[in-house]
Amino acid sequence: MKIIGHRINGEVSFEKNSRLGDVYNPATGEVERQVALASISQVDKAVSVAKNALESWSATPPIKRARVMFKYKQLIEENIDELADMVGREHGKVLSDARGSIIRGLEVVEFACGIPHLLKGEYTEQVGTGVDSFSMRQPVGIAAGITPFNFPAMVPLWMFPIAIACGNTFILKPSERDPSCPMKLAELLEEAGAPPGVLNVVNGDKEAVNAILDHPDISAVSFVGSTPIAKHVYSRGSLAGKRVQALGGAKNHMVIMPDADLDQTVDALMGAAYGSAGERCMAISVAVAVGDIGDKLIEKMTPKVSSLKIGPWDDPDAEMGPIITRESFDKITNLINEGEKDGANLIVDGRNLTLQGYEKGNFMGGTLFDNVKPGMSIYDQEIFGPVLSTVRASNYDEALNLVKSNPYGNGVSIFTRDGDTARDFASKANIGMVGINIPIPVPVAYHSFGGWKDSLFGSNNTYGMEGVRFYTKVKTVSSSWPSGIKDGALFSMPVMK
């Protein structure tokens, strides 16, 4: 059986007698390969290599680093089918969804191509007599990224292209559940011209995570995952003196006003709730039906949820794939059971779905609840599966208070035809990302992604200018020069040297 190792200094390797983790195909339920789980010494090796590469890479002109990113963009585009298959085979996403997630990551690579402009500092002449002042952004050093299983391509691409374009070197610790795609992404970056050691991949579990958080030579850590782990990463990394951005879980609401275009809303809600089997931190898991629109919403949603096309990652007709692991499958099933016991109305039951030829796969149908209330486990907990809870609100203020009182603050959306309502909602919702008639308001690459409350720990969002700020430090210089001999004439065209 193939063993996936680590990629350190441009080479794939793993220690003898490494601990191994199983990598499943969620559609078949079978172990297809194994992954080496890094020890502390393996993390130390990766950091040492990154440290050796840092001096020359940080001194590389930004325009040359940008050219690497331009080539990297091209290589990802040329290899997108292979990358999407890796994502689908190990995570379960259908290929169209896998391709889409890679493209959203690719947009950040495109943003990083503009790094010469993004790193420009400020200059003020004559702040005092004969004194000028200017500022510059310089790399923090060695950065690390700890990324989740649900987006093995997109989330790493949110991190390391910007970090590396800024002149840092990088340690990536992807999820051990679907490691093949991150390894390929690292290989392609080297093919694009990044020197060995600039990007290193260490596969592993909690041992590798804590080794990264404790290592004195790592200056910055970016994390995406569940809120409990985000709190751990933020507290332990900060205690070790690092700057940390730790993005946690979510419980995203969609507020549906009585004046909403219901057909448009239902289509948007279907994709937002059940795309990627609900394994998205920006998935809509709560629909808040305001006023008398609730019955109409349930009436239109029920046949659509019941008829979801479910299949393996490579089925071109499938709209939703399997859950990544049996453990996650069982957790989701238990939460559905608890929802029934708590008194919510189970409208569509996705349990007990089997597909011919994939009887051991982690397949679950779409599940729809009505009359869900705060205090029920299916409302309070992040389910991370194809389960949509419908909550009834008598008016706009009640719906807004549901959003504001929730401990998570990742994303929220409102569907309405009324501009005044939408404007008020965008202003008052204490949520990091707000959509108006947009179901999943993930910002474009030149803005930034991040939540509020228990969905983000740290002061910086990820990618966009927030990413540039996170991976750089500001240095301000004040200069004064004595009178001296001026240079003579220069007749050749000045060029970058």
Overall description:
- With 497 residues, the protein is α/β, with parallel strands linked by helices.
- The protein folds into two domains: 3-248 and 455-478, Aldehyde Dehydrogenase, Chain A, domain 1; 252-436, Aldehyde Dehydrogenase, Chain A, domain 2 (3-Layer(aba) Sandwich).
- Helices cover 38% and strands 23% of the residues.
- The protein has 16 helices and 23 strands.
- Strands 15-16-17-14-13-19-20 form a seven-stranded mixed β-sheet, sandwiched between helices. A six-stranded mixed β-sheet has the order 10-9-8-11-12-22, with helices on both faces.
- Strand 13 (252-256), helix 10 and strand 14 (284-290) form a beta-alpha-beta unit.
- Helix 2 runs antiparallel to helix 4 and helix 8 packs parallel to helix 9.
- The model has no long low-confidence stretch (mean pLDDT 96).
CATH architecture of the largest domain: 3-Layer(aba) Sandwich
Average pLDDT figure: 96
The gross shape turns out to be globular
**CATH level 1 name of the largest domain:** Alpha Beta
The count of DSSP E runs of length 2 or more, i.e. the number of strands, is 23
Helix content: 25-40%
| Class from helix and strand fractions | alpha/beta
Cα distance, first to last residue? 50 Å
Number of domains: 2
How do the strands and helices of this protein lay out in sequence?
Blueprint: E1 3-4, E2 6-8, E3 11-13, E4 19-25, E5 30-37, H1 40-58, H2 62-78, H3 80-91, H4 95-112, H5 115-118, E6 123-128, E7 131-139, E8 142-146, H6 154-165, E9 169-173, H7 180-191, E10 199-201, H8 206-214, E11 218-224, H9 227-239, E12 243-247, E13 252-256, H10 262-274, E14 284-290, H11 294-306, H12 326-341, E15 345-348, E16 367-370, H13 377-380, E17 387-393, H14 396-405, E18 408-409, E19 411-415, H15 419-428, E20 433-436, E21 452-453, E22 456-457, H16 464-470, E23 472-480
Parallel strand pairs: 1-5, 8-9, 8-11, 9-10, 11-12, 13-14, 13-19, 14-17, 16-17, 19-20
Antiparallel strand pairs: 2-3, 4-5, 6-7, 7-23, 12-22, 15-16, 18-21
